[in-house]
Amino acid sequence: MPTREGNTILIRLGIVLSVFLLLLYPLPSQSAVCSIDLGTEWLKVAVVNLKPGQSPISVAINEMSKRKTPSLVAFHSGTRLIGEEASNLLARYPTKVYSHLRDLFAKPYDVAKKILNSLYLNYQIVPESSSSRGVAVIETTGDGEQSYTAEEMVAMLLKYAVGLAEAHAKAKVKDCVLTVPPYMGVQERKGLLAAAELAGINVLALVNEHSGAALQYGIDKDFSNGSRHVIFYDMGASSTYAALVYFSAYNAKEFGKTVSINQFQVEDVKWDAELGGQNMELRLVEYFADEFNKQLETGFDIRTSPKAMAKLKKQVKRTKEILSANTMAPISVESLYDDRDFRSTISREKFEELCADIWEKALTPLKEVLEHSGLKTDDIYAVELIGGATRVPKLQSKLQEFLGRKELDKHLDADEAIVLGASLHAANLSDGIKLNRKLGMIDGSSYGFVLELDGPDLLRDESTRQLIVPRMKKLPSKMFRSIIHSKDFDVSLAYESEGLVPPGAASLTFAQYAVSGLTDASEKYAPRNLSSPIKANLHFSLSRSGTFTLERADAVIEITEWVEVPRKNLTVDNTTSASGNISVEAGPKNASEESNDKSQVDDGIGNTSINDNSTTDLGTEKKLKKRTFRVPLKITEKTTGPAMSLSKESFADAQRKLETLDKKDEERKRTAELKNNLEGYIYTTKEKLESEEFEKVSSSQERQSFSKKLEEVQEWLYTDGEDALASEFQERLDMLKAIGEPIFFRYDELTARPAAVEHAQQYLTELQQIIHKWETEKSWLPRERIDEVLSEAEKMKNWLNDKEDEQKKTSLFSKPIFTSEEVYGKIFNLQDKVASVNRIPKPKPKVEKPVKNETESTGEKSSSTNSSSEEASQNGQTAGASENSADETETTESETHDEL
Ligand SMILES: *[C@@H]1O[C@H](CO)[C@@H](O)[C@H](O)[C@H]1NC(C)=O
Ligand SMILES: *[C@@H]1O[C@H](CO)[C@@H](O)[C@H](O)[C@H]1NC(C)=O
Ligand SMILES: *[C@@H]1O[C@H](CO)[C@@H](O)[C@H](O)[C@H]1NC(C)=O
Ligand SMILES: *[C@@H]1O[C@H](CO)[C@@H](O)[C@H](O)[C@H]1NC(C)=O
Ligand SMILES: *[C@@H]1O[C@H](CO)[C@@H](O)[C@H](O)[C@H]1NC(C)=O
Ligand SMILES: *[C@@H]1O[C@H](CO)[C@@H](O)[C@H](O)[C@H]1NC(C)=O
Ligand SMILES: *[C@@H]1O[C@H](CO)[C@@H](O)[C@H](O)[C@H]1NC(C)=O
Ligand SMILES: *[C@@H]1O[C@H](CO)[C@@H](O)[C@H](O)[C@H]1NC(C)=O
């Protein structure tokens, strides 16, 4: 029942969306919105499609019709490969295939090296040389030893993903939402955003994975009758988290009516960023590696062979999957090392024993989130499982045991819930799409952030290091801090505590800024009568995507001074007093927005003096005024180390590199297509030539010579043609077609021509009847028009007879004397002529009426215009005319539909 409800909602949503878009863009607009879930192992794409007749939200499939694609990039023989293609190289060229790319953002080289080593990944990384970031970059061997940053590599994956979305939607993708695991830090999120920018993607927001899942969970449910706590437990390939989410409903006024609006709030999320399905696989890899080493009996350790390890890892994945449904599983790796095959089996029991500590660790995030919330397992409405690794039976039984439940909640698609939910968020954020089903989303910052100030003469007190974003602070939010200071200073942003930083982070600090202009401003205003100490106001932004930045800073200078103001004729305004009653500025010290300087000056002068010259005579008077000056300060980012973003130059460089690769890919695709066309042509043509029918239309000599040509080109295809250019394939295809087409044409005409001739004869017979009818029943038809048709018919008849005679005398091996196309052309011509005569209307008898009635006169007019336009139009048959009118009614119908 709930799913059916969900479906109809989605369908309704689709209809609403498409109508909405039609209203916005009268011409059919071709843009779609998508979400991308880029994980360590897989990437998934969901599309919000506004085209009518397609399901509004769906998962995009890849070129292998799979719903998820390996998150891999490879470079081999100068060619870049992504996804499935890269995956195919994994066993043969493990060092040329790059994985875990998302996890390399902002990682110091040594940290990255350690991660890769622990996973037996042997691709080459080096410290970035073009910057002082100290991050790891990937050095490719299959691409002339280029190096690529994590941003560049991920940009390739994202661009590929958008390509899938566009192919699926058959439309351009305008906006995207990208999902991120909750533990992703500020600099990693910035890295992902930079990658998306490199890929030319307009990112509406990053969204935490658990929020995506919560959206998908809540969109088809109603919480007005009861709120609930749900925990989303996600174990993916490389990480695990548990998120506590509160679903509820509140009442709101909408168009004067009270409606209930569903919403959810993420209350907490805890994770283990280094525990996932791949850890279980690694246990199996170690186990089998030992076993194989023993079998080898040479003392050699296959762990030192990247190729062997890659093969073993690939097979182990399968073994683990089999163990999820069976108590025993085999493993079989052909030629694992040194031409020796490896075969073994493992029981589920043994597997569970190997992973004993993993099961315990897996519960930790769940325990923590419960403990922190003070809720008991009974208070939790559901613990929904997502992520591929939650399919492992032992993990499920551990969870059941801990929760004291017989059944676990598996209402969501373990693989696709996140990406589907994220696409709802994308639709919600994208312009021009109105979700007809509302679900409010409140997510919070995964990390707490502190603000640190540093600079000359800065008092060291509790305000120089203060918590500015507490954990789970609502996204997005703006913050404001005011400090009393008169010299330039530095601002650092850091994670709240050592114990809670993104995995592998080099330091607590993730951003540093120099704030300048304050010293100058202070000096400039120092001689003035300052009414309060100079302040610097700092404006921070916690974005929807979970990044945190210092956005803006300004100096605030308050001065009290006597100013000359024109004296006014104050007979009306009786609140005169020299000291003036201008204590506007009485706000608290921390108040953010004082009215600014300009408006106060306006207030002082007033505008009565303009009308009345006499007031100038009164002279001026002095007033004590309080004025506030705001001076924008300059913010210079000076973050150092791995948390640094790509510099402008590196970014431009990266764009160029990626563009070159894209062009190469395009060329490769075109070449492959042309090569395929040529191969296909040769294959089908050879088959045709061998069939008997073609003996009728070609001499054996002709066929033999053509066959030889085909052989030659085929030979070339598999030798020199292996790496030929697109143009070379095209040239050969054109050459072959020039020989082949005439033969196939003759063959087709063998049946088409007689059919056409018969058709013509039939029509000529019919025509006789038509003319007879004209002569007997339509006396008003002009004789010369009928004769014209008769003569045309005669001409055609003669032409047919001549051509047929000639054709009979001609060999079927040579070019036909006439073609079926010519015959049909002649028939159509004649039919046209007949139709135009047919339409000559019967003249209306002239009715003599003294008063011309309007309705009658318009009737006459329309009939006369009808006939004249029909005569003018060449192929205006009656059918054509009725088609026209059908068109008209259709357009008016769709117009009214639009307006709905
Ligand atoms: C909510 O509760 C009321 C009364 O208990 C019931 O009539 C209504 O059908 C419920 N609505 C939903 C959506 O469950
Ligand atoms: C959708 O947008 C509304 C209005 O901006 C917001 O209140 C709500 O939280 C959003 N919901 C989702 C799922 O993004
Ligand atoms: C300076 O400001 C104070 C009030 O803050 C005022 O009493 C005093 O007259 C001002 N002095 C000058 C020189 O403007
Ligand atoms: C002030 O204005 C009043 C009328 O508004 C006028 O009668 C009076 O003469 C004016 N005084 C001066 C000094 O201009
Ligand atoms: C100002 O004028 C108003 C009437 O316009 C009067 O009620 C008020 O008492 C006057 N105030 C003074 C200080 O003269
Ligand atoms: C200033 O205005 C306040 C209220 O607006 C009034 O109570 C006070 O008497 C005024 N002071 C002078 C000097 O007019
Ligand atoms: C006001 O004074 C200006 C010069 O100060 C003069 O040009 C203008 O004509 C005067 N207007 C009236 C209405 O007297
Ligand atoms: C035309 O004839 C109709 C029906 O006879 C009549 O209702 C109408 O008023 C006439 N129109 C004029 C302009 O005379």
How would you describe what is shown here?
The longest helix has 52 residues, at 726-777. The chain is of the alpha+beta class. α17 crosses α18 (783-808). Residues 1-6, 8-28, 574-610 and 856-900 have low confidence and may be disordered. The protein has 21 helices and 28 strands. Strands 1, 2, 3, 4, 11 and 12 form a six-stranded mixed sheet that branches. A hairpin with a 5-residue loop joins β25 and β26 (548-566). It has three domains: 2-274 and 362-441, ATPase, nucleotide binding domain (Nucleotidyltransferase, domain 5, 2-Layer Sandwich); 449-606 and 615-643, Sandwich (Substrate Binding Domain Of DNAk, Chain A, domain 1); 652-838, Substrate Binding Domain Of Dnak, Chain:A, Domain 2, CATH 1.20.1270.10. The structure holds 2-acetamido-2-deoxy-beta-D-glucopyranose (8 copies). Belongs to the heat shock protein 70 (TC 1.A.33) family. HSP110/SSE subfamily. Its main location: endoplasmic reticulum.
Q: Helix and strand layout, with pairings?
A:
Blueprint: H1 2-24, E1 31-38, E2 42-48, E3 57-59, E4 69-70, E5 73-76, E6 79-82, H2 84-89, E7 97-98, H3 109-118, E8 125-127, E9 136-139, E10 147-148, H4 150-169, E11 172-180, H5 186-198, E12 203-208, H6 209-218, E13 228-235, E14 240-254, E15 257-272, H7 277-296, H8 306-325, E16 328-337, E17 340-347, H9 348-354, H10 356-373, E18 380-386, H11 393-403, H12 417-429, E19 439-442, E20 449-454, E21 465-469, E22 477-484, E23 489-495, E24 509-516, H13 518-525, E25 535-542, E26 548-566, H14 597-605, E27 620-632, E28 634-637, H15 648-690, H16 700-718, H17 726-777, H18 783-808, H19 820-838, H20 854-872, H21 878-899
Parallel strand pairs: 1-11, 11-12, 13-18, 15-19
Antiparallel strand pairs: 1-2, 2-3, 2-4, 5-6, 5-7, 8-9, 9-10, 13-14, 14-15, 16-17, 20-21, 20-23, 22-25, 23-24, 24-28, 25-26, 26-27
Helix pairs in contact: 4-5, 6-12, 7-8, 10-11, 15-16, 15-17, 16-17, 17-18, 17-19, 18-19
Residues 853-855 line the site of one 2-acetamido-2-deoxy-beta-D-glucopyranose.
